[in-house]
Amino acid sequence: MAGSWPMVSISAEINRHSYGNESMNEQRPSLCFRLVSATILLMLITGVNAAVPPAPGAESMQAFRRIQCSLQDGQSAVYGWTGRAYSRTPGEPDRLLFRVDGMNIRQCGTVNDPDKGTDFRMVSKEILLYRDPKTGAVLDQWENPWTGESVRVLHVANDPVNQRPMFAIGRDGKPFSLPIIVSGDQWWLTSTIPLFYDDPLGGDYQHYVGGKYHATEMFNFMGNTADLASDAGDTAEIRVGWVRIAGWLPWMKMGGRPGEVYFHTAGRKLESYEQLPDIMKNEIATHYPGYDAPPPLDDQRPNETSWTYFKKVIGDEK
Q1: ω into 6 cis (within 30 of 0)
Q2: Is pLDDT above 60 for 24?
Q3: Would you say 133 and 99 are in contact if contact means Cβ atoms under 8 Å apart?
């Protein structure tokens, strides 16, 4: 989680999805085609209208704010997710390294700009816990199976993870369009974010000798189309999937050994902080005080990532 989660840095383009097998050139309609036709016919008979995405501009931005947090300024929203982390290294099978649990607590506030108009900004902080794959216990130490060394586990504690103000009209002068796919009463959004930039743990010559931070974050967001309508409530029920592929975590002390770690998780927007698992709330109360509330809406600090957090912790200990 070197970047934000689930900071929706939405890709402007969504891959087209095909639901039939176009290469077979079947003469009779596919099962999927017949099911869709029957659904449309039923809608026509019953007078039910298929849902449509929010209109570009203010309506799309309002729907996006419902996904992120709430239309009410200062109302906290909490995402929680769980899954597993695996290793991938040449010449051996992938290993289950950790069970993981994550949370992100956030709030949105209205922003007024004399040129761009009125819209919102989001502020947040997040935690990701590494747990023993067998016992589920939160790890303090980890036995590195490649080096045999017992290393200290540094969980993710990123504060802040904030979003720049967003407006219904973008910097290119075009209205913001929420790139969701609508199917009946459900919608989904896929966002793939390749990351390649100077590693904060590296030196000044990465452009020449390599060593840049290289990862990919993949998000899937899903929900009910009714929650995004212009007359819907202040927030939306959201389900989310998160995948991350990146190099070894710094605290694993893998040196230059080839390989990477990938995470596969799923979760949702919770109704309240209290719905987080007890293991997460206990860790926050014991080790991460203040993570039960988002940053202030006027927070101007630079964003934290798991790599910059590691550098800060290790630097303070030197």
Answers
A1: yes
A2: no
A3: yes
Q: What tens digit of pLDDT does each residue of 100-155 get?
A: 999 999 999 999 999 899 999 999 999 999 999 999 999 999 999 999 999 999 99
Residue 130 token pair: 């590494």
Tokens at 284, concatenated: 């926050």
Q: Can you spell out the DSSP letters for the chain?
A: --S-SS-----S-------S-TTS--SSPPHHHHHHHHHHHHHHHHTPPPP-PPPTTHHHHHHHHHHHS-SSTT--EEEEEEEEEEEE-TTS--EEEEEEEEEEEEEEEEEEETTTEEEEEEEEEEEEEEE-TTT-PBPSEEE-TTT--EEE---EEE-------B-SB-TTSSBP----EEETTEEEEEEEEEEEE--TTS-TTHHHH---EEEEEEEEEEEEGGGGSTTS-SS--EEEEEEEEES--GGG--TT---EEEEEEEEEEESSGGGS-HHHHHHHHHH-TTTTSPPPTT--PPPP-HHHHHHHHHHHH-
Question: pTM here?
Answer: 0.83
